[in-house]
Amino acid sequence: MKVPFMRKLIASILLVSFVACSASVQAREENPFITSKEIDLVKLLPPPPANDSPQTKAELSEILALQAARTPAMVARSQADATEDIWRFADVMGVKFKRDQLPLFAQFFQRVVDSEGAVVDTYKDIWKRPRPFIYSELVKPVVKLSRSGAYPSGHATAGTLMGIVLSNMVPEKRAEIMARAAEYANNRIIGGVHYRSDIETGRITGTVIAARLQTRDDFNTAFDAAKKELRGVLELGPDPADSM
Phosphatidic acid phosphatase type 2/haloperoxidase domain: from which residue to which, for each copy (predicted)? Predict the structure, then answer.
């Protein structure tokens, strides 16, 4: 009578072990080009405005004004932009801009996005600026909530960083790409999860990370391969600037 029970118990243990192992295999290990050890944001950025400062109150008023004016289309756009990846630029890049056609490009930009988190998350924990919806119950967010520090905005950092790198690959679309990066960042205010100063310092941080990455050989090697693949898929031909 005990044998079937033992068999079931062993089978259950094996199943749990298999699921746990599968989950660990599926979990993606981050592989940034650069980390907070190489960029000191405390020396680069001012501290965030104090909670009771006139600046924070003015920024809160902006959030509430946008909250009152936001349309369903604005809400949907801000929710879609809550995803941190390069494919949010597809509406600028065109129908051929797809992950399955750009494996090298996709791998490269995942490392770019990983670099944002590896730099910014450390300083969010240092400054610990409360999110607007934590500071004021009048703020009604429409995007996924985060309890991490608000300053600087990781999304604004990532959007700016991605925009700069992508526009360096396709300078023909630089204006449109950077406009999309600005919208991507601003949607964090519309979504109710960031103040204006979080966004502005995120743009500064993204610009600094982009500049620092361009000094690294590993980044430049991967950039060149990803750029070649992208321009080939988009049928743009060689970048004229490469021959100058």
Answer: 106-214
Task: Return the structure tokens found at 156.
Answer: 């604004």
With a threshold of 0.90, does the pTM exceed it? Answer: no
Q: Does an H or E element contain 121, and which?
A: helix 103-127
Nearest to 191 by CA among 73, 63, 100: 63
Residue 212 within a domain: yes
Q: 234: how many CB neighbours lie within 10 A of its CB?
A: 18
Place of tokens 């907070």: 36
pLDDT higher at 47 or 146: 47
- Give residue 10's pLDDT: 37
Q: What is the CATH number of the domain that holds 151?
A: 1.20.144.10
The amino acid present at 120, given as its one-letter code, is: V
**Three-class secondary structure of residue 93 per DSSP:** helix
Q: What angle do CA 219, 223, 227 make, to 5 degrees?
A: 175
Domain count, the chain: 1
